[in-house]
């Protein structure tokens, strides 16, 4: 993509944090923005604010973990933008402070439902049309540094984000002969309110038991948290540059080196033999 002027962009998780910043910057760059969030009134106010600033904007309440609701979103977008979608930002994400050993099945369903299945649902709904149009397009999938570097407090979140990274890398290969690119956004610490997302947890994912939350944080020696606007700017620059992945913290570099060294050390230098019984 050479720019955002005149395109239609769908941004999930657009009422807060990185999603709000993405939608704001895209509108300022001349894109028609479909702002999507489970917080219906918030996203409608968001769209109204963008419209008041001169942008073309639509706010849609949608739970991206529901395939049926994303299908409804697709119909609303098709009616609003008959020319289709050129930029899909699968950004919605949730986090719950649970270790794997203490998480309930509903915790797993909710985190994977939004972070992984929400991304899959967006791809199912919009990508075929993007490819078929023959127009330049792009998919921006928000993962996390925890999609590359796990910590002892991120089992649910990392399970989802590792999957988003693998999906995105494979999708990039699949789409290499098309005009649609794929970029992974892998932020580290960002000033968002993802810690309050339990407030909008759907009833169908309600926990079947209550116990104290686990500590959600681990110290990787990360740099100070960045503002959502900074991260959105890096992400959109990366989209235009066609980058495969965008990190937001240089501290991730040595952590990646350390992890890859451990994995590389496990590769045999010659075909492994089979021990006789």
Automatic annotation (TrEMBL):
The keyword Oxidoreductase applies. It comes from the Bacteria. Keywords: Oxidoreductase. Pfam families: adh_short (PF00106). CDD domains: SDR_c. GO terms for cellular component: membrane. The keyword Oxidoreductase applies. InterPro entries: NAD(P)-bd_dom_sf (IPR036291), Sc_DH/Rdtase_CS (IPR020904), SDR_fam (IPR002347). One of its GO terms (molecular function) is oxidoreductase activity. Belongs to the short-chain dehydrogenases/reductases (SDR) family. This is Short-chain dehydrogenase. The lineage of its organism: Bacteria, Bacillati, Actinomycetota, Actinomycetes, Frankiales.
């Amino acid at each position: 993509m050479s720019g955002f002027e005149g395109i239609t962009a769908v941004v999930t998780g657009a009422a807060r944090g990185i999603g709000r910043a993405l939608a704001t910057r895209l509108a300022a760059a001349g894109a028609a923005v479909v702002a999507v969030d489970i917080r219906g009134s918030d996203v409608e106010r968001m769209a109204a604010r963008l419209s008041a600033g001169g942008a073309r904007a639509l706010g849609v309440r949608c739970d991206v973990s529901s395939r049926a609701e994303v299908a409804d979103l697709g119909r609303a977008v098709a009616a609003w933008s008959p020319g289709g979608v050129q930029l899909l930002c699968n950004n919605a994400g949730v986090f719950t402070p649970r270790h794997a050993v203490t998480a309930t099945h509903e915790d797993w369903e909710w985190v994977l439902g939004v972070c992984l299945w929400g991304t899959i649902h967006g791809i199912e709904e919009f990508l075929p049309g993007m490819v078929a149009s023959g127009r330049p397009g792009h998919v921006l999938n928000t993962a996390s540094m925890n999609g590359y570097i796990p910590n002892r407090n991120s089992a649910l979140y990392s399970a989802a984000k590792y999957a988003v990274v693998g999906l995105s890398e494979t999708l990039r290969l699949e789409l290499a002969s098309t005009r649609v690119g794929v970029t992974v956004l892998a932020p580290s610490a960002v000033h968002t309110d993802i810690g309050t997302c339990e407030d909008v947890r759907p009833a169908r994912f309600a926990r079947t038991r209550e116990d104290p939350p686990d500590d959600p944080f681990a110290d990787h020696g990360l740099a100070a948290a960045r503002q959502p606007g900074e991260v959105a700017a890096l992400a959109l620059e990366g989209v235009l540059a066609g980058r495969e992945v965008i990190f937001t913290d240089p501290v991730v570099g040595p952590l990646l080196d350390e992890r890859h060294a451990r994995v590389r050390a496990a590769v045999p230098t010659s075909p492994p033999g089979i021990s006789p019984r």
